[in-house]
Design a protein that fits this description.
disordered C terminus; alpha+beta; 751 residues; 42% helix; globular; six-stranded mixed beta sheet; disordered N terminus; single chain
Length: 751
């Protein structure tokens, strides 16, 4: 067990890691250079007795991992400015934390100055003297660390004698300005019209990390065009709330508003950092573009939820991630091993979509930084390794009233509204939205990494259907057929274990269907196909927009004189074909889905191109989420992001072949050199053809062929060469070194 001394007023934690280093040095008297490679960011000081070498680490874990047997939640949320933390500082200026729960506080006279003073006091007490507006540029997944942008500014000024003093104003808190033309913008900004403007997001709490206060902010152009991921999400949530509130009022249930709650299951890989440094493809692109499969993979299902071994630094890394998140009020509830070797998962509690999305981005940043402090590299890309599972980020999605009633929980909504019609009407509206706008749902998950993941027996196929289970489906079909409305009561069943000493338990009548892209799970839908590297803002922007339109359609028809149940039954008759409770991995299902008229778009590139279909631009404009100009820009940005990703991969493959594979083959006297030299020419020519394309649409189509056909064929040659080359002559880290921390401890690999 590592010994940790923590001062919660300070921003660093001193960690003694004698156990880990001793394990390595017992095996070999490592050089200082080797130890530094082994520990990544950790620096060792050599002495005469390497066996007793101790390492001091600036861990930046903001909360103590107790060194005694007593567990504690003290310190949770201390670095998040809300609730009791905010109340303590706001009370000095005559306010309470309730001020922050009113999203209009930034526009109330004098309130911003009060909040700024309180934030400054809190920051100083916690060792922070810097602030930034923290925002989310587009096209960040897979390339931008933390998927965010920020400019750090000091929170002090100077008096006439040049002496500094702390100062932070309401104006500085509320807004900022930056260069909008230097971020992906799809032509909405240029050097001669570059203004980009930031405004505080009152739905996402201010937080503190190390010496910096982070102010979540939205980012738009001088003309009000959204230049970020956050602004459209706000628009979509408001549209869903407005139309949903209108619909509920027509159904006799008045609420102040609706919110979208989500819970994100984040998957990652943790690999030895010294091996990561011997993989240019992982460093530059996040995935291995070549690499022979190891003799062992995931075929024994031995990694899934296995003990998190203390024999490696992965356990320390995961605990440190949780502790740092806890300090910022991010409730990472679960941690476990995933299916593939060296794959892990964290999942938080449910929360407001705006705040949860922000927290997930910070969690992803913390993954990468804490991993480096533990001699590891965190891989967030969807498919880092061929032949084993990739990583997703399941987006659990629900709708609730502002006072906490979940519209997708039949028991809750029936009790609160006293109207059993509401639940089937809401479900009918959502089913219609899925069927009508499956193309947009597919577009929303078209991250470059999902090219290799969807439908590969690890994630749902590129067919957008929904699983409701037989119980729910029969209920809705009976409602559709006869119009009789009864309260939906989910069935339960007793599950016996066949041993008298083990008690029966009660479980849902429905099994779990992991092959559906959008299954209903009792009180939520789960968008299972989201990519692990994605900012989920676009995903939830789409889900809230299509739901808003569905609510509006029902409300409009009711206002026109139709009965609510008649409208819902009509929607189910037209759209229930999208309900599929079978096996989504059945090879015949995609073709069957097309015959039924269900959206199937295998190509992520083709899905992105749907952004500007007239159906979709009209939807976004009508709901006030995107203007046609913003739709055009986002289509271009997403295609350019795909093109850029593939170009980096192709050029990295060229370098790896020239600098590693060919030299190794020559030393080993293998007969692959001519094939590899020809492969380099093929790759270079394909990149040139992408550059010469008429537009980003053509270039993206060429990039997809290069990536999923040409590069895969070239990879086969490289992997065959690796299989025949002696390990001592192969200069790239192998899958065996990268994927098996338990079998190949970091120290062993230094031998």
């Amino acid at each position: 067990m590592q010994a940790i001394s923590v001062n919660l007023k300070m921003n660093s934690v001193t960690v003694t890691r004698a156990r880990t280093i001793n394990r390595a040095t017992r095996l070999s008297p490592c050089s200082v250079k080797a130890c530094r490679a082994f520990r990544g960011a950790i620096v060792t000081k050599p002495d005469k007795s390497t066996r007793n070498r101790r390492v001091r680490v600036a861990a930046n874990a903001m909360m103590s991992m107790p060194s005694t047997s007593t567990a504690s939640v003290e310190g949770f949320g201390d670095h998040c400015f809300k609730g009791a933390v905010a109340k303590k500082y706001l009370s000095k200026y005559g306010e309470t934390d309730k001020l922050l729960t009113d999203v209009s506080w930034p526009s109330q006279p004098g309130k911003a100055d009060i909040v700024a003073k309180a934030v400054l006091d809190w920051a100083v007490d916690n060792g922070a003297s810097v602030y930034c507006h923290w925002f989310q540029p587009m096209a960040s997944s897979g390339v931008r660390h933390g998927l965010s942008a920020q400019v750090h500014q000091t929170m002090f000024e100077f008096d006439k004698d040049g002496k500094p003093f702390f100062k932070f104003t309401g104006e500085a808190l509320l807004q900022g300005e930056t260069d909008g033309s230097s971020y992906p913008n799809g032509g909405m900004r240029a050097t001669h019209c570059a203004g980009g403007y930031l405004s505080i997001d009152p739905l996402s709490p201010i937080f503190l990390r190390e010496d910096t206060v982070f102010i979540p902010a939205a980012f738009v152009s001088y003309n009000g065009d959204a230049l970020d991921e956050k602004t459209p999400l706000h628009r979509a949530v408001e549209a869903m709330s407005n139309e949903g509130t209108r619909l509920l009022k027509l159904l006799g249930y008045e609420v102040d508003g609706l919110i979208n709650n989500i819970g994100l299951e984040q998957e990652i890989f943790l690999v030895p950092r010294h091996a990561f440094y011997r993989r240019p493809d992982l460093q530059f692109t996040g995935r291995t573009i070549m690499g022979k499969a190891s003799a062992r993979g995931q075929e024994m299902s031995d990694h899934y939820m296995a003990p998190i071994s203390r024999a490696t630094t992965a356990f320390d890394c995961m605990r440190q991630i949780q502790m740092e998140c806890f300090k910022m009020g991010i409730p990472l509830k679960t941690r476990h091993r995933e299916v593939a070797p060296n794959q892990y998962e964290f999942a938080p509690l449910f929360g407001n979509v705006i705040n949860q999305t922000d927290q997930n981005l910070m969690v992803m940043q913390i993954f990468e930084e804490v991993a480096s402090e533990n001699g590891l590299a965190a891989l967030l890309q969807e498919k880092p390794f061929a032949g084993i599972n990739g990583s997703g980020k399941h987006n659990n999605w629900s709708i609730g009233t502002t006072d906490g009633v979940n519209l997708l929980n039949p028991k809750q909504i029936n009790a609160a509204s006293k109207n059993v019609e509401i639940f089937p009407i809401v479900m009918a509206a959502i089913v219609s939205a899925i069927d009508k706008h499956g193309d947009l749902m597919r577009l929303a998950i078209a991250s470059p990494g999902n090219d290799f993941r969807l439908g590969a027996m690890e994630a749902p196929p590129a067919v957008i259907s929904t699983y409701l289970g037989d119980d729910m489906t029969n209920y809705l079909m009976a409602f559709m057929d006869n119009g009789n409305v009864e309260a939906y009561v989910p069935s339960k069943k007793k599950l016996a274990f066949g041993a008298n000493s083990i008690s029966e338990i009660e479980v849902p009548a429905e099994d779990r269907n992991r092959t559906s892209p959008f299954p209903y799970g009792g009180a939520r839908f789960e968008f299972r196909a989201a990519g692990s590297s994605q900012n989920v803002s676009l995903i939830n922007t789409v889900l809230n927009t299509i739901t808003a339109e569905a609510f509006a359609i029902v409300a409009d028809r009711i206002e026109a004189g139709e009965t609510p149940t008649a409208v819902a039954r009509d929607l189910l008759k037209a759209h229930s074909k999208v309900i599929f409770n079978g096996n989504g991995y059945d090879p015949e299902w995609p073709d069957t889905a097309v015959e039924k008229g269900i959206w199937r778009i295998d190509s992520g590139v083709e899905a992105i191109k749907k952004f500007t279909d007239s159906k979709n631009t009209e939807l976004f404009e009508k709901m006030g989420v995107f203007s046609p100009r913003e739709c055009d820009a986002r289509r271009a940005i997403l295609l350019e992001h795909y093109i850029g990703t593939v170009e980096m991969e192709a050029l990295t493959m060229v370098d790896m072949i020239n600098q590693h594979v060919i030299p190794s083959c020559k030393k080993a006297e293998l007969g692959f050199v001519k094939k590899l030299e020809d492969a380099v020419k093929t790759l270079t020519k394909a990149v040139d053809e992408m550059h010469a394309a008429a537009d980003e649409s053509e270039a993206a189509s060429l990039a997809r062929v290069l990536r999923l056909d040409t590069m895969i064929k070239i990879r086969e040659v490289c992997d065959e060469a690796e299989g025949l080359c002696p390990p001592s002559l192969w200069t790239l880290a192998s899958y065996s070194e990268l994927l098996f921390l338990d079998t190949y401890p970091e120290g062993d690999l230094l031998l």
